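Hi there. Long-time user, first ticket. I'm pasting a complex I've been working with (about 1073 residues overall). I'd like to know whether the download I got is complete or cut off, because the file seemed smaller than I expected. Thanks.
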Amino acid sequence: MTSSSKRSLMKLAGWSALAATAALVGCGKKEETPPAAAAPASAAPVAAASAPAAKPEPLKIAFAYVGPVGDGGWTFAHDNARKAVEKEFGDKVVTSFVEKVPEAADAERVFRDMASQGNKLIFGTTFGYMEPMLKVAADLKDVKFEHATGYKQADNMRTYDSRTYEGAYMAGVIAGGMTKSNTLGVVGSIPIPEVIRNINSFTLGAQSVNPKVKTKVVWVNEWFNPPKETEAAQSLLNGGADVLFQNTDSSAVLQTAGKAKKYAFGWDSDMSAYSPEAHLASSVINWGPYYIKATKDALEGTWKGNEGSWWGVKEGAIDIVSISDKVPAELKAKVESVKAGLKDGSYVIWKGPIADNAGKEVLKKDEVADDKWLGGVKFYVKGVEGKVPGDGK
Amino acid sequence: MLKLEARPAPSKAMSIGSPLLALAITVVIGVLLFVALGKDPVRGLQVFFVEPVKSAYALSELAMKATPLLLIALGLSVCFRSNVWNIGAEGQFIVGAIFASGVAMQAGPGTGGWIVIPVLLAGVLGGMVWAGIVALLRDRFNASEILVSLMLVYVADMVLGYLVYGPWKDPAGYNFPQTITFLKSTQVPRLVQGFRVNVGVLVALGLVVAFWVLLFRTYAGFQLQVGGLAPAAARYAGFSSRKALWTALMLSGGMAGLAGGLEAAGPLGQLTPHVPAGYGFAAIIVAFVGRLHPVGVVFSAILMSMFYIGGELAQSRLGLPKSLTGVFQGLLLFTLLACDTLIHYRIRWRAAHVHAPKPTPVSTPTPATTPKEA
Amino acid sequence: MESFALLLAATFNAGTVLAIAALGLLINERAGIVNLGAEGLMLVAAIAGYATAVHTGNDWLAFGAGAAAGALLAAAFGVLVIWLNTNQYATGLALSLFGVGFSAFAGIKYTQEKLTERPHFEVPFLADIPFIGPAVFKQHPMVYFAVLLTIGLAWFFYRSRAGLVLRAIGESPESAHALGYPVRRIRLIAVMVGGALCGVAGAYISVIYTPLWVEGMIAGKGWIALALTTFATWRPARVLLGAYLFGGVTMLQFHLQGEGVQVPSQFLTMLPYVATIVVLVLISRNANFIKVNMPASIGKPFFPGS
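Hi, the file is complete. Here it is re-exported in full:
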């Protein structure tokens, strides 16, 4: 080809690119059918226009996830709950989700986009969405926002959380009974009160059956980083721990324990399949009950902002599942009785006397901690080694 | 078989045509990918190329996303033209954000909106300091700026982590790794009420003009370019390669730092460990696709932003995974680099075995094109 | 004492990944090619290896798949930078970005999968020696492979003809070309072998080290491997030692935490990178010094017949 014909070929390519774009824009305008109709992400069937009676428009619900749906942990649990909502309400709702939304400026765009797509109830499933959600909530007053694990609210935004510490406590009971070295290890994610409370509850649970246990903690400073979690777990095992616990989101800790023929727990979701020999039990979060309630509120018009919910075993949000056969019947019975006690409110985990690991008493005898107190836990209980990073300032 | 033959002079048509061709190839691959995934390809292309420009809000978001890319790419264009390979713009972005946040946190309840200027200037300074380390090590110790700047990206990330987990952590933030939310006065003013786009866009566009003038209308710019294209000639002409090194790194570092400051003081309003968003690396692609030309990078920044935003939208609209964005971005650069060869070479068909050339008096024999290379 | 032995064992394990990848990159760089795409390459190899392990249950096939994936991507990279003479850094970066996205994309189905129980390896008799046993002889064969690879490469570079040719190409491709060596073909082979090794390292991470797939799981090890070749001044033995050093830093960090030492983890994590900068400065400051150490033609395009 001569260079001039090559040039004309380039011109042709350029013009066709422009033409193609124009065609797309044109096609776009024609294809203005309801956008959600084609979205394969939503599994629930859309209320077909063929319905004879004037059915109310289905409520559009959107979920923003911080991790991938397949993480087998935190996000997986949320997505299971989303599916539970679909199952419960059928064609009264249409759900969709966006995964891996970063906890940064981009989140705001995602929330606004969700709202612009007609979603009237939006769930943000991680702390880092707090500020972006707040900003969008301020601008879009007719959309309801649900924020997980946060603390800021608005007229159209409320918070929800789960009492993961109850699950941690029950796991601790099992751990205390199963450990032979009396050293437990915890792979910590980020040193926020929730995680510290879980570490403490785990230790308290273990001490309730075995006062001699001590707990070592190693911080990964991330919610989800399997290779790092592996290394952290390994270093705990090297340090003598024979039962591991975690607040991170992957099954790496469990698998590392399995490789070393030690024990560990599943967290957030049932991880028993990942390492059957090492798995003692999984402390799971079931967001289903809350999501169903929130949807019900929205559908019935009883949804109110400016409030926060903190559900636990009693409401069906927390459970300990797949308890291994290796756990002796006696221990299993103890855990079940704790669970039953939590369910009917007769068992209280955070009741004094409780001292921190510097010896100071933080809860007097028979004093019961209230939710506010629990929300600000920044110390380690006796038996946990080390200091809370950041000095718990 | 195909053979590459050097052109007598670089083809101007291909200079502009190459990015378009690369884009076209990427789009074609994209379409094939959509079809393979069982999605409607037209809808897929729409989501990437039409939706991000469909409404005023969408345009505002596009501008917001494109601004940091544009800023960093402007600086990188100068840098790469001078043959200084600053791969660490991401680190300079982070340090710029840190410095800017440091100033922003000094704002008290009574501070006026003027503080935005020092905040942004602090960002520029931060980026320059970080790039300055690279320049110093290269200047004094000959250390490869590629490796040093790359390593400094990680160091910057760790410094950020240390600050937000430690001394700069918001005391009222429940021990979460983040700084306080900056006061409203420090926030970069928005252009239009209700949209997130802020004056950063105007600053960026102004800088586009400034950089164009610098590169193509000033002596200094001329020196930089010659230094990059023909270092021996530059030395002979007395152009200081040292000055070129420092100018290139200071400019690109400052721009990256400015982008970082804008991000922290703009849409984010605080410093978190999530500030590094990969813009520093994506900007390298933007610079290349924009042919290292100030006006070209405007278009490539917009294109890149469309990939980002389109990738996000593709999730909720089409159920496509987010990872596609990275695939498209990488593909674009790949194809661009491949197509760029067409600027200096053209493709010729040659018979597999070349026997004696036709006995015409003017034909030159072709042993020069048959070395024992594959 | 026992915990220290275990720490050593974990360090060797962590360092093996870095070592194999860095040795692969070393082969590239000795031939004069810098492949910044190591991270993306390792990710694609990791998912290739993991998928193979899931479907076939055979770890060695998985390593093979990882190597093949690495070699393939490296070949694409090689054709671009060696024959089309595209900018090595930009091309490598494009490969990295592409690899990150592609691996995440290809791996979506595999995040829920799990592998069969990972086998335990022990050298009989030697594993029972106190201290040395647990520290050194209870490792996966790949750990020993890394050591053998180091020795093999040292022999190859400094004692074999082929290695000499490769190094010559890395120092001055023009001279090698003038001597009649097929410079470009040799470079491509070097790039592909290097890519295959990076691929093996990537597969090791997803199949053995942290046996699950999650996107981005290489988490920067590719970039560390790149730093490692420079840190080690392009010598195989130093690469291995450096790998253990860098691999050990993370383990050390957790070990210290477990012991209650309160150093901000970020400073410890920063160490390998800062160390690399320091080494870079040290070897570069003297023009002769660096000539002795760094392959002269790194990053520069080669035009035969020009």
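A couple of notes from our side: The CA atoms of residues 133 and 299 of chain C lie 43 Å apart. The radius of gyration of chain C is 19 Å.
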